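Exercise 7. Given the components listed, write out the predicted structure of the assembled complex. Treat all entries as one system.
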Amino acid sequence: MKKSRLIAALAAAGLTLALGGCSGDSDSGSGGSVTIKFAHWGNNEEAKTIASMIAAFQQANPTIKVQDNWNAADYQQKLTTSVAGGQAPDVAQTSNAFLADFQSAFQPVQVDPSAYYAPNIPNALKVGDQYYGVPFVIKPKVMAINLGLFKKGGVPAPSLTQPMTVDQFVATAKKLTSGTGKAKVYGSAPLWFNGWLVAEGGDFFSADGQACTLDTPAALATANLMIEAQASDGFAPTLLAAQGQDMFYWLSVDRLAMQPDFGPWDIAKLAGLKSGDFQILPVPGNGSQLEVNGIAISKSAKDSKLSAAQKFAAFMSTDDRAQSLLTTTKSSLGVPVTSTGLKSFEAAAPDLNLKAFVTAAGQSKLGASVKKYGQITGNIGEALSSKTAIGSGKQDPATVLSDLQKRCPAGLTTG
Amino acid sequence: MQPIATFGLIVASAYAVLFGVMKLATARRWIDRSTAAFWIFISPWVFGFLLFTAGPMVYSLVLSFFDWNLLDPASFVGLDNYQKAAADPLLGQAIKVTLLYAVLSVPLSTALSLAVALLMNTKVRGIHFFRTVWYLPSLVTGVAQTILFLWVFNPTYGLLNGVLDVFGVHGPAWFNSTFWSLPAVVLMSLWTVGGNMIIYLAGLQDVPVELYEAAEIDGSGRWQRFWNITLPQISPVIFFNVVTGLIGAMQVFTQGYIVTQAGGGPDNSLLFLVLYLYKNAFEFFQMGYASALAWILLVMILILTALVFRGSAFWVFYEAGRPTKENRVRTP
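Answer.
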C-alpha cells in the first residue's frame, strides 16, 4: 500500500512538473510584456555596442525585454545547433557572407530600400527576391596609418580621399620599413588574401555566384604580393611572426606604419590614441568587400514574439537612437545604415577621417551570396597558406590556384 | 513545452514504470526483493546511460545513413556516407595522423611515466615534494595546456627556440611546420605523464618486497631485478595504461583544434580523426557524414583494443602466472 502511494506521489510530481512547464510560455510575461532572445557575435567592443543598443530599445519599448545572447566565437555553429535543437533565438544577427546558409531558418522580412543611403545595403541581405535580414550596420574596411612613422621616414602622408594604387602602396610600405629582427618596423601589416584579392580587382566567385574565379591574374597577383611582402627583405611580418600578435597594438606602438584591413570595430580604440598621430584612408586599389549585417527573424518566432522581433529589427535598423550608438567614443561596432545615423558616426571621432568608411560603404564591392561561403573561402586560405610561401609551403601559387579552381565546387548555390 | 518539463516527465514516467514493474515482479516472485532493490538503486545510472550514451549512439548510427545539414530536413542516403568515406583523401590523412600520433605518443608516454615512477619510488628525503612537482603539470591540461604550448613552441618568440638559440641551434617552426607539428604535439603530450606516473607508482609499491630480497640473495643485479621482477609484476598496470592511452590517443581533439585555430598544423598535418569529424559536423554541417566517421572511429578503436588485448597474452603477467584465456578474462 505504501509503495503504491509512493508510485502515485512520484507520478504526480512528474506530471505537476511537466504541466507546470506546459502551463504557458515562460518568456511571455503578464500585462502584455514579452521577452525575445537576440543572438549576435563580436568582440568586447562590438558586444558593448550591441548591449547599449539593446538598452536603448528596451527604454523605448518597456514591454519588450531583449535577452542578450552574445557569442564571442563559433557563432554560426552555435546558431545552427540552436536552430536544430529547437531553441532558435527569436532574432539573430546575420551577415551577407553566410545568409544563404541560414535561409531555411529565417523568415522573409519587410525592408524599405529607400530608408538606406546606398542600394548595396538592403540588397546584401536578399536571397533570391526576398529579404532575410533587416540591415542595421555595415562593416567596410579602410586603412589605418601611423602618421608618426610617415614623418620619421620622410614620407608624405597619402591623400585622405583618393585611394593609393597597389604600386603606390607597395612603394610606400617599402620606404617605411626599417630595422631588423625583433626591432624591425614594418611598412604594412600582413596582407589578407580575402581582402587584398578585392583590392587587386578580383573575387572568389563570379558575380552570379555560379563559379569560382581563382585562376585569374588578380588572384595570382594577390598571392605573389603576399609572398613578396613577407620575404626577409619584405615590408610586412610573416604570418608566423604575426601569429598571436595584435596588429592594432603594433600600429599603436610604432611597429607598423599601415594596417590596410582596418575594421570599424576598432574606431573607438584608435580614437583613444594620441590625437593627430593616426589617420584613416581608403583601402588601396579597388577597395574591399562590403560586409552588411542585419537582424534576421527566426521562423519559430510567432504572435507576440514575432511582433516584438519586428519592432526590434526596425528599431536597430532605422531608429536614430540605435544608429547613433553604432560608433561612439566608448565603443564601436560599425557604420550606420541610415543617412541621419552617419552624422553622429562622423562626429564620434572628429580627428579621424571617418568619412573614408562612408565612402568605402558606397564603393565597396558586394560579393555573390554563396552557400558554404565560409567553408569554401576557409579551405582556399588554408590551402594557400599550407602549400605556398604565403605560409609554410613552397609550391608555385599559380599551380596551387589552378588546382583550387579545379576543385572549387561546381554548381554553387546563389542567393 | 520547456525542455526541463519534458525531461521531468520522462524521468517521472520511467520511475513510475520501474516501480510498477518491480512491484509486480516481486509480488509474482519473478525476482526477489534484493534484485528489485538492485535495479532501483542502479536505475539512475541506467537511465543516464540510455539517455545520454546509448540513445545518442543509436541516433548517430541512424543518422549515418542520412544527409542532414541541421537546418533542412534529413534525407535518407543509404550507404552513401560510408562510400564517400572510402574515397575521401582527407579521411585517409586524418587516419594517418591519428595512428602516427598514437604510435608515437603511447610508447613514449608509457616509457617516460614508468621511468619517472621508478625514480619517484626511491626512498630519498623530500620524495613527496618531487612526486607533487611531477604530478602538478597534469592539472593543466586540454585547452590551457595547448595555449601554453602555443607560446612555448612559437617559432619567433617561443621559449623552446629561445633556448635552442642560446646553443646556436636554429629551431624549427614547430606547429607551423608540416614535418614538426605532429612531433610537437607528441612532445606536448608528455607534459601530463604525472597522471600515469601515479598509477605506476601505486603498482610499483604493490610489488612484494620479498621478491626483491630473494633475488638479491640469489645475486641478481638491478637490471635483472627490474626485468624479471618489476616489469612482470606491474605488467597489468602497464597494460591498463597502454589500453586507456591508446583509446585516448585515437580520440585526441583539443590539441589539433586549438593549434589549427591559431594558424598552425599546415597542410592538414594535425588533422586528427576526431577533429575531422568535428569539422564535418559543426563547420561543414554534414551531420550524416560526421556520424559515419564516428562509427568508423569506433570500429578502429575496437580493432586496435582487441589487438592489444590479444597481444597482452605474451607480455602481461598476473599473480596466477602467465595469462591463459581464462585468467585474461578473470584476473585474480
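Discussion: The CA atoms of residues 174 and 180 of chain B lie 5 Å apart. Chain B touches chain A at residues 1-6, 8-9, 11-13, 15-16, 19-20, 23, 70-72, 150-151, 154-157, 173, 176-178, 262-264, 266-268, 282-285 (CB under 8 Å).
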